[in-house]
């Protein structure tokens, strides 16, 4: 009589973690680290300036350097969280995926959103503010430096953190509507000091943040939201330069 072979005993494969695999506590931890890393960044820049004083110091460069270092440290914290706590790849976890439609489409959405925000600002009669950053952009180098930052590193960092990390967890825990609203409000509050906490400006930025959130949720691609954000900022930057040219400003 033939013996029936015993079935092979196999080790169960580890369960795949679906996005988002991080927790609400992780969101609180990263949020709590935001202020300390920015303080460290400012201290680093001030120490560097004290040790190596520039002959022709450009204030905006120091401001952007502190912001760059702060973003880098914050990214390092997020990277460490994903790699050491969960052993997951960073960019894949942040949904840095190819969107269903070519990126050119999302690049075109940026100016459309900028026009809509600008029109809404006109209807809301948003006040003209003396923003500190504008005071720093009084020369060509400062203006170009801010412009490059606004269409490259700024959108990348903000989209990865807010739409790549915060939004998926909040949308899954609280629902898409609440996730979009909370993420957009936190995103707008980050820009609050730049606009003297004007409620009209905060409302407009919240609306823009919601649009980035919707693109991220619809495409499952943080890259698509980043490209849209970059061209959105680029549109306002071009409009600002055009305004300077119109009034005959020298820069």
Give me a quick take on this structure:
With 251 residues, this protein is an all-alpha fold.
Rg estimate, integer Å: 22 Å
What is the domain total for the residues? 1
Helix-strand makeup class: mainly alpha
**Total number of strands:** 0
Low-confidence stretches: 7-15
The largest sheet, given as strand count, sense and whether it forms a barrel, is: none
Mean pLDDT over the residues: 86
Note the beta-strand portion.
under 5%
Subunit arrangement of the protein? single chain
Written as H for each helix and E for each strand, in order along the chain, the element string is HHHHHHHHHH
Helix content: over 70%
Task: State the separation between the terminal residues, measured CA to CA.
Answer: 96 Å
Number of helical segments?
A: 10
Identify the overall geometry. Answer: globular
Offer a few descriptive terms.
mainly alpha, 251 residues, globular
Note down, in words, how this protein is organized.
The chain has 251 residues and is mainly α. The protein is 73% helix and 0% strand. It is globular and about 55 Å long. The model is unreliable at 7-15 (pLDDT under 50).
Secondary structure elements and pairings:
Elements: H1 24-51, H2 59-85, H3 90-93, H4 103-124, H5 132-136, H6 140-151, H7 153-174, H8 176-191, H9 199-219, H10 222-246
């Amino acid at each position: 009589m033939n013996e029936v072979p015993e079935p092979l005993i196999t080790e169960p494969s580890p369960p795949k973690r679906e996005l988002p695999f991080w927790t609400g506590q992780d969101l609180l931890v990263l949020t709590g680290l935001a202020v300390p890393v920015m303080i460290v960044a400012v201290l680093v820049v001030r120490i560097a300036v004290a040790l190596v004083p520039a002959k022709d110091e450009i204030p905006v460069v120091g401001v952007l350097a502190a912001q760059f270092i702060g973003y880098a440290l914050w990214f390092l914290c997020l990277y460490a969280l994903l790699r050491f706590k969960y052993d997951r790849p960073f960019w894949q976890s942040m949904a840095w995926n190819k969107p269903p439609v070519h990126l050119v489409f999302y690049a075109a959405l940026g100016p459309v959103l900028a026009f809509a925000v600008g029109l809404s600002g006109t209807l809301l009669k948003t006040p003209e503010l003396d923003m500190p950053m504008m005071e720093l952009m009084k020369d060509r180098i400062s203006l170009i430096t801010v412009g490059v930052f606004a269409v490259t590193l700024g959108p990348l960092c903000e989209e990865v953190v807010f739409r790549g990390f915060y939004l998926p967890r909040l949308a899954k825990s609280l629902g898409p509507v609440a996730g979009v609203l909370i993420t957009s409000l936190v995103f707008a509050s980050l820009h609050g000091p730049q606009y003297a906490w004007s409620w009209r400006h905060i409302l407009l930025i919240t609306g823009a943040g919601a649009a980035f959130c919707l693109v991220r949720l619809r495409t499952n691609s943080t890259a698509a939201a980043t490209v849209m954000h970059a061209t959105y900022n680029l549109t306002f930057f071009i409009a600002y330069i055009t305004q300077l040219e119109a009034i005959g400003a020298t820069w």
